[in-house]
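ok here's the first one, seq then struct tokens
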Amino acid sequence: MADWLERNEQLVKRLNFQKVDGVRIRVPSIPQYVAGVEHVTAGVTGLASAVGAAVSAQAGALWGVSAFASASTGTAISSLSGVAAQNATLAWLGGGSLASGGGGVAVGGAVLGLVTIVPALLVGGMTMGVVGARTKTKARGFAATVDVEVERIGLVREMLGATERRIEELRVLLGRMTERASRALDVLELLAFDPDVHAREFLRAYQLVTAIKEVLNTPVLDPESGELAEASVEILRRFA
């Protein structure tokens, strides 16, 4: 759509504020529209790279430990770097350093090897499971805390299931809308565009593309509560 607008900028400007079937056309700032699309494209590329780097379950578990755990000396692992950070992370997974009664780097390496069997979506749960097992072996007094965390992981898995279903609903909706928008854009491309004759075709394509943008911008989860966002239900209802 941005490409077509850029090629037909002067003609499209003539449609601004005209009414078609009772709908007033508001032509966007085409340079801003194009720049916005380029920005989104760059963001999606970066996101894809980040996802590709994060699919390793081991990498996810290591990140979780390095971000939140402390070395046997009490120093936050996140403040360490290089070999020191690596050894502290592995020792933490192994139940602590040999000097503190843990299994040390060797046992931590073995624990990390087990993480590869866990699906990437459950890396958080696996990391917490390792935390729980490690804590329970060191002090039975933490058993209640471990049980709470196990319950929490169960709730998280339920939320993941609900989130996956909502994403699938949005994906199906987006697929249908994309087909319609693609057909509308194909019609525009085939026209020797005349704003006095083809305003209806322009409006249809522009409305569909704008609707797709709304779907893409709809949050699946509420950033404050962590629950499924009401906005995602509303967008499904509106474009059903």
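and now the second one, same deal
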Amino acid sequence: MGLRPSDAALADLAGYLPRIGLDGARPTGRQTWHLTLAFIGELDDRRVEDVSAALTALSRTTAGFALRLAGGTVLGRTSTALCVGTDGDTTALTALAERVRTGLRRSGVPFDERPFKPHLTVARPKDLSPAEVQAKVDALGGYNGPSWRAEKLVLYRSHPGPPVRYEALERFPLRG
């Protein structure tokens, strides 16, 4: 469950990444880029309907908001993912993530309960030392992409890889 940035925002990020170099890391691929609001994991088809109902209700009462991809971070204690962070209306983003998670809980749909950390994964460090990972995070620290409007939630199904593939099952326009 997530938000897909605008094509212009994704193109800008794709143009920036060669500046920092991803040698020693496995790039994730532009077609997979999105901001995860809640990671659901395996979900059978009957539960997709439960998620869809919760997200339909939520999207009717939530307005779109402005974001930008900016800065660098890592996920995991061992830096398993090199990521770009967010800027803009991060208060609205965090509130949306919490509303999505509340809707999933009410629907009885299990999801990863780790605290929400807005990010877009650009690579998975493979053969990089912690110092090399930190150098890439620092290089991403200078990134400040164009503003875009978060206007629809997307329910994704992931297909393991490599490479991992994401399939958009359903989109929910934010109409509040």
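notes on #2: The longest strand covers residues 65-75. Residues 14 and 30 are 7 Å apart (CA to CA).
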